[in-house]
Amino acid sequence: MISDSPRRGLSVAAVLGAALIWSSSFAVTKVALAELPPLTLGALRFALAALILGVAVHAGPERRRLPSPRERRFIGLAGLLGITAYFALENIGVDLASASDATLIVASYPILTLVLSGRAAFSPVRLTGMLVAVAGVWLVVRDDGSHSLWGDAFLIAGGVAWAAYNVLARRDGSGASPIVVTYYQTLAGAGGFVPLSLSEVDRWRVPSGPDALRIVFLAGLCSVAAFLLYNHGLRHLEASVAVNLLNIVPVAGLGWAVVLAGEKLTITKVLGGAVVIAGVTLGARRKKTRGGPRRTEGHLETAQ
């Protein structure tokens, strides 16, 4: 039997592995968008992810505990919002802006989720953190030209869609396991992408070998494997610890943007990213409970 210390270490490694995979998604998406239109890329990515998840769900023990048709419709509605709407906006935003912009702006999503969820207690410390995060986003976008600003606007709109998704997804009362919920959300999200991708039919082409590998990476690793790693880590870690570990996403994402997408970072953007991370960390703090330690919000979701 594995002792608590090694088990915790493996859990930390699992969450960090998920974070490193997620951090690369923006740069990989940016490179793939050079040849594939954004909505078509989303359709291919999530159709493949739904296929992988479907095999895992229906071939494993989860097939005995599937949600009812009514519950599936609710889960599917969340998938249309959290996958189709969010990733359509994200892909268009990355296409118009940069992978580094996406990495840094997405880092501010947890604060937006807290605001829209109505669960945030607006203490002076939390409010300060939110304002600091907003200031960090402003630093990220302030030096961009008009073309990139449109991309940044799509990315920020994606944050609203992601926050709304989190509010809706928390109302799921199916009791299904995370992988089953993710499967039905992904299936609905892929279905939502198909009609959207038809608007790009004049730009369709057979993906090259490298682009096919990028689609497999986004579907198999970013949409499936990283999710499984993260949820494995949550089994033996406090949710607040796992969420704090995700702060590595924007930091590593900047590195991937340079290495994979060949982007150049300005000092202002790096500073803006640091300010966003500081603001999110500060904004996630809770007041010290009576007789207990200071805690962080347990479910500040990130979107990858």
Q: What report would you give on this structure?
A:
The chain is built from 12 helices and no strands. With 304 residues, the chain is mainly α. It has one domain (4-283). The longest helix is centred in the first third of the chain and has 29 residues, at 4-32. The two termini are 34 Å apart. Mean pLDDT is 83; it is low at 289-300.
Q: How do you describe this structure in short?
A:
This protein is mainly alpha-helical.
Number of domains: 1
Described by strand count, sense and barrel closure, the largest sheet is:
none
Order of helices and strands: HHHHHHHHHHHH
Rough outline: globular
**Amount of helix:** over 70%
Our estimate of the beta-strand percent is under 5%
**Given the helix and strand composition, which structural class is it?**
mainly alpha
Output the number of helix runs. 12
Low-pLDDT runs of 5+ residues are 289-300
Q: What is the subunit arrangement here?
A: single chain
Radius of gyration: 19 Å
Tally of strands: 0
